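Subject: sequence -> structure tokens, single chain

Hey, anyone have a minute? Need the predicted structure for the following. Not urgent.
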Amino acid sequence: QVHLVESGGGLKPAGGSLRLSCAVSGRVISVNAMGWYRQAPGKQRELVAATTSGGSTNYADSVKDRFTVSRDNAKNTLYLQMNSMKSEDTAVYYCNAQGVTGYGLRFNYWGQGTQVTVSS
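Reply:
Had a minute. Here:
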């Protein structure tokens, strides 16, 4: 079974910084793509930032100048460095990972979500 364990959520003031982590564990051959999504109350889940094992990245326009996504391929861990945080960044953040299990099967799993709250 593949597990995604998230950490780093919490409460920060506007202008502050926060770093989220997502570790993929289990019998996996490879993790090809990982991404962070968020869902605020009354809104649909949206892509925040994503990256592939090859290093390509994709950011939402609203966070492109403030957030940085990175990954440690050896540890199958994804990070999201959030700087200059705004109240509109308040949401539940979800980690997503796609790849191949140790049984040679594709997987597409989500983490449990972590609450990020930015106070004004």
